[in-house]
Amino acid sequence: MPIIAKVAVNDATIHFDKLYSYLVPDSLVQGVRPGGIVLVPFGRGDKPRMAVVLAVQNGAADPRLKTILAAAPEDAHLTPSLLELVHFLRDRYFCTWYEAVKAIIPYGAQYQPGVRDGKPAVISRLTRPVERVYTLVGDLPEKPKPGPRQQAAVALLRESPCTQRELEEQGISRATLDGLCRKGVLRAVERYKSLDLFADIPFDPRPVALSASQQAAYDALAADLEADEARAALLFGVTGSGKTLVFLKLIERTLALGRRALVLVPEIGLTPQMIRRLKAMFGSRLAVQHSALNNTERLLQWRMIQQGNADIVVGTRSAIFAPLENIGLIILDEEQEHTYQSESSPRYSAHEVARKRAASEKALLVFASATPRIETCFAAKAGRMRLVTLTERYGGRPLPTVEFADMRAELTAGNPREVSARLAEELQQNLARKEQSILLLNRRGYNTVAMCADCGEVLKCPNCSVPLVYHKNRQALLCHHCGHQLRPAPARCPQCGGKLVYSGFGTQRVEEELQNLLPTARILRMDQDSTMQKNAHERMLSRFARQEYDILLGTQMVAKGLDFEKVTLVGVLGIDSMLFGQGFRAYESVFSLITQVVGRGGRAALPGRAVIQTAVPEHPVLGMAARQDYPAFYAEEISFRKLCLYPPFCAFCVVGFTGAQEGAVFTAAHRFGQILADLARRHTEIPLRVLGPAPMHITMLSGKYRYKLTLKCRNDAPFRALMRAALDAYAEEKLPAKATLALDFNSDGDM
Q1: Is 461 exposed, middle or buried (CB count within 10 Å of its CB: 0-12, 13-18, 19+)?
Q2: How far is CA 249 from CA 43, 239, 263, 324, in A?
Q3: Where are the alpha helices (DSSP H) in 283-349?
Q4: How many CA atoms lie within 13 A of 738 on its CB side?
Q5: pLDDT in tens, 170-222
């Protein structure tokens, strides 16, 4: 009986994504199974396309069925647990089957159509590097008399096998080694290269000493860890309370139970510190997954995990898809961060994927933060997960003292600088005491706006409806969205010829101000522009930790998770633009950012202090953040969410429409809203509110116009069925030709 494979092909759109049936040839029967990657002829021209096998079954002979052309190797198969995630992503986030596959498998481990021996074949996107390894298998003959290089090679290999590179570093050539192989003294084999990214970190497993409160937190979480069922907990601790030490003890217990641990951090910049702690304590069975690794490194780390050679995986959002088996513990550190939400299809939340994996593995899922998401805290207070608190800083150290610098008063007093007189004074005192400072400004560049003094024209990106930002080091105006640049930066208005006035400030301008104010200060700027090179985050933070710099100035990448004992002063600049920003999470973001960055100070013996620059020092959110009073903030915010019907009291979905013609995009968005409303009227049991259509905050991006519908709903199976029916109707009316459509369930109001 013929064997039929149900496959999902690459490059399908969300409107035409379905399973296709193909015959499995006899030669591939053993290599084709659910989770496998195959090559199939597709469409009228039978163009080879990559596909993922989702089901294999016996079927009746059908001459219309095409035959699978080729299959990827065994190690390309998705494990049953990862295949389960493919189904989860497609159902939950309305992506295509293959988009879900590509989210899970790193680029280097993916395959593409190719030709081998004149036939269609599956070709790896990245050739895994190999190396020659030499082993001593015989004695060195006395005649002819062996040379010194031959003797040296044999002496080295008596201890253990060595790679060609290791031997060449000792002055032993490939020719010498090949000669010894011909004599039967050595044997050479090729193996895949391994890669120890952290060879410079010494293994130094010291016992973790917990305070009484940390021990109580650990005991509560360890009880859940050892339960034979999925559990979830929120570890809520003030900044500096030692949550990481609790993590280390939990990981230690997980490994002792014969299980594995997965640790997620929100920023690449936070991985070096976490890696150093984990590597020092647990040794080399540690793997890393994040976007700063090159394709070869990511592939080697992926294979290491896949082959069962890693007990701990640490990484950013994408690490949640690591092929780790027998997971006992999943940790999301700084769980409040928006970086745990994907901004491209599939627009998944690492929180939700982590819950899915924890449920499948019967693992403990720990969310950790000093400023947890409102939704997470609400769930903990409702009893849907354990709430564990750390209310004191480790060692009994006090929280930093906080004061506000009123920027309105600064202008009145005649200070035109972006650094207030009070902050400048505190920075000068820190320099005199040889202590370090951290300054947060969540805007990069030099000036943020270029406007004509005569006609009022603001220079905007021709492809995006946003102002161009002046970068002094490049002498250019740049778009931070599409990369468009105007070089050299003009002095005159292109519309009327009037004089352009550059205003606003970013990290580059503040760096310049600091150099003028504090000429002896060693300043390290850390933003997207300065961290483009490989391993830049780690190098910069290491140098700051060694006290090679006095002041660390950066965007939000310096605001959380960092621990430097000499940092006693924290300054916050330009926070008002975020305070009055768009989205229902604006206050939550500001509170979290200030609380986190203020908490970087005074984490060792020296007391900490902070200066927050603002034009509205009386704003209640700033006051609560200064006091690090999360309970008060939560009480205010949850009341607002309930009144306005925002998460956690509903699901929030943005339906985005994108196209080249603004009128057509609006029409498509309006029609989809009508389709959805008509369907909703037939299903009154499904709660749904449809708002819009309205232009997105950035109406044009990369030359495409953008409109949105905002849905307040309940993201359950009936609602998702309703949405699929609406998407089918949208496709039947051929509206995708006018505007492509995307859904985001993790947005705070825009895409």
Answers
A1: buried
A2: 55, 19, 13, 20
A3: 295-306
A4: 18
A5: 899 999 999 999 999 999 988 766 666 666 666 777 788 899 999 999 999 99
Residue that has been written with the tokens 């468009």 in this structure: 484
The CA distance from 227 to 353, in Å, is 21
Residue 456 has pLDDT above 90, yes or no: no
603 with 565: CB under 8 angstroms? yes
H or E element that contains 586 = helix 586-598
Give the DSSP H or E segment for 260.
Answer: strand 260-264
Which amino acid, residue 115?
V
CATH architecture of 651-744: 2-Layer Sandwich (3.30)
For residue 250, the Cα-to-chain-centroid distance in whole angstroms is: 23
Q: Are 361 and 328 in contact (CB under 8 A)?
A: yes
Q: Of 254, 608, 659, 623, whose CA–CA distance to 426 is shortest?
A: 608
CATH of domain 401-445+519-641: 3.40.50.300
- Strands 704-713 and 651-659 come out as antiparallel
Residue 673 has pLDDT above 90, yes or no: yes
Q: Class for domain 212-393, per CATH? A: alpha beta
Kind and range of the H or E run holding 276: helix 271-282
The yes or no reply on domain 3-124 and CATH 3.50.50.60 is: no
Instruction: Answer positive or negative: Cα dihedral of 638, 640, 643, 649.
Output: negative
- Please, how many CA atoms are within 13 Å of residue 723, restricted to the half-sphere of its CB? 29
Interior angle at CA 375, CA 370 and CA 380, nearest 5: 70
The pair of structure tokens assigned to 414 is 């005649």
Domains of the chain, residue spans: 3-124, 130-192, 212-393, 401-445+519-641, 447-504, 651-744
DSSP string, 216-244: HHHHHHHHHHTSSS-EEEEEEE-TTS-HH
End-to-end Cα distance, the chain? 49
Q: Give me the phi and psi of 229, to 5 degrees please.
A: -165, 165
Structure tokens at 492: 């005159």
CA contacts within 13 A on the Cβ side of 354: 29
Mean pLDDT, rounded, of the chain: 89
Segments of 358-463 assigned E as strands? 364-369, 386-390, 401-406, 436-441, 449-452
Q: What is the SS3 string spanning 328-385?
A: EEEEEECCCCHHHECCCCCCCEHHHHHHHHHHHHCCEEEEEECCCCHHHHHHHHCCCC
> Can you tell me the mean pLDDT for 240-249?
89
How far apart are alpha carbons 734 and 376 in whole angstroms? 40
Tell me the β-bridge partners of 7: 20, 53
| Ramachandran area for residue 633 (φ above 0: left; ψ -120 to 50: alpha; else beta) | alpha
For residue range 163-174, list pLDDT tens digits in order: 888 899 889 999
Q: CA-CA distance, 508 to 529, in Å (whole number)?
A: 10
In the 8-state DSSP scheme, what is residue 515? H
- Asked if residues 648 and 374 have their Cβ atoms less than 8 Å apart, the reply is yes
pTM here? 0.86
> Are 407 and 616 in contact, with CB atoms under 8 Å apart?
no
**Strand order across the beta sheet in which 260-264 lies:** 286-289, 312-315, 260-264, 327-333, 364-369, 231-237, 386-390
The answer to whether 366 and 221 have CB atoms below 8 angstroms apart is yes
Q: Do domains 212-393 and 651-744 have the same CATH topology?
A: no
Query: If you average pLDDT over residues 12-32, what whole number do you get?
Result: 86
Q: What are 716-730's pLDDT values in tens digits?
A: 999 999 999 999 999
Over residues 660-687, mean pLDDT: 95
- Report the DSSP pairing between strands 651-659 and 609-614: unpaired
Question: 573 in helix, strand or coil?
Answer: strand
- Taking the C-alpha atoms of residue 534 and residue 553, their distance in angstroms, rounded to an integer, is 20
**Which SS3 state, helix, strand or coil, does residue 327 take?**
strand
Answer whether 347's CB lies under 8 Å from 93's CB.
Answer: yes
